[in-house]
């Protein structure tokens, strides 16, 4: 969830607000339901709780011998608390132990990697937030330095040098959000427009990073990729 959404909601109950990639609109309380958002807010959602569970599943496929996997998350990001619960449930089903490492500010990154290495993480998952997205280059550099395979929440991280990502197609969500704005400008009421979920997802790998890590991506997993960066 983008941090500016909450101040925008507090500032007006009448001006239409369209979000393009909300992580958890119902869980955070911005709308009462996806089907009938009501009020002046609607848009597109990527449902972070579903995504992090799938990301952990894919990372476990890439690291079939892993017993411990790190999770970098930000306690100050509202959507992360339910996301962590979801990834914990997924970990129980997969039989892996999570090393939950909170990161509130950029200066926490070094210590976070130290914790994951010390506790024997075979790899780690980043729950995306404004902080991790802004500092994605630093994150992927630390992953390489500590030789830890990582799963990120969207393609931008892999383009910056991350190993792999799975997430909603943000470009598609932004395009669809524009159609919502068009409908509202033509007279539609935001509260009558259901919040739609992402329909396009991308699994992306960076082969150059895999080589730098001496990491072999399982062929069957690589064959499912929507994009491979070489």
What would you say this structure looks like, in words?
By secondary structure, this protein is an alpha/beta fold. The protein is 42% helix and 20% strand. It has two domains: 5-45 and 170-199, Response regulator (Rossmann fold); 48-167 and 202-229, Response regulator (Rossmann fold, 3-Layer(aba) Sandwich), CATH 3.40.50.2300. It is built from eleven helices and ten strands. The strands form two sheets. The chain has a seven-stranded mixed beta sheet, with helices on both faces. Strands 1-2-8 form a three-stranded parallel beta sheet, with helices on both faces. The radius of gyration is 18 Å and the shape is globular. Mean pLDDT is 91; it is low at 1-5.
> Would you identify the regions where 5 or more consecutive residues have pLDDT less than 50?
1-5
CATH class of the largest domain: Alpha Beta
Query: What structural class should be given to the helix and strand makeup?
Result: alpha/beta
How many discrete domains? 2
CATH architectural group of the largest domain: 3-Layer(aba) Sandwich
What is the helix fraction of residues, given as a range?
A: 40-55%
Largest sheet features: 7 strands, mixed
CATH-assigned fold name of the largest domain: Rossmann fold
Q: Any idea what the CATH superfamily of the largest domain is called? A: Response regulator
Helical stretch tally: 11
């Amino acid at each position: 969830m983008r941090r500016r959404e909450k101040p925008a909601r507090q500032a007006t109950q009448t001006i239409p607000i369209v979000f393009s990639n909300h992580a958890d609109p119902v869980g955070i309380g911005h709308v009462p339901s996806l089907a009938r958002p009501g009020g002046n807010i609607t848009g597109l959602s990527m449902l972070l709780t579903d995504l992090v569970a799938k990301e952990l599943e894919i990372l476990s496929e890439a690291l079939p011998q892993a017993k411990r996997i790190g999770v970098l998350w930000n306690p100050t990001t509202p959507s992360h608390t339910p996301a962590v619960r979801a990834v914990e449930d997924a970990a129980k089903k997969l039989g892996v132990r999570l090393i939950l490492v909170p990161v509130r500010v950029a200066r926490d990154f070094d210590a976070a990697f130290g914790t994951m290495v010390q506790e024997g993480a075979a790899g780690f998952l980043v729950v995306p937030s404004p902080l991790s997205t802004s500092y994605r280059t630093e994150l992927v550099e630390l992953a390489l330095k500590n030789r830890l395979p990582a799963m990120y929440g969207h393609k931008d991280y892999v383009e910056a040098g991350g190993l792999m990502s799975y997430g909603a197609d943000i470009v598609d969500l932004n395009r669809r959000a524009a159609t919502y704005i068009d409908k509202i400008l033509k007279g539609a009421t935001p509260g009558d427009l259901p919040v739609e979920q992402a329909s396009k997802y991308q699994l992306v790998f960076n082969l150059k990073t895999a080589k730098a890590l001496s990491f072999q991506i399982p062929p069957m997993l690589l064959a499912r990729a929507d994009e491979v960066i070489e």
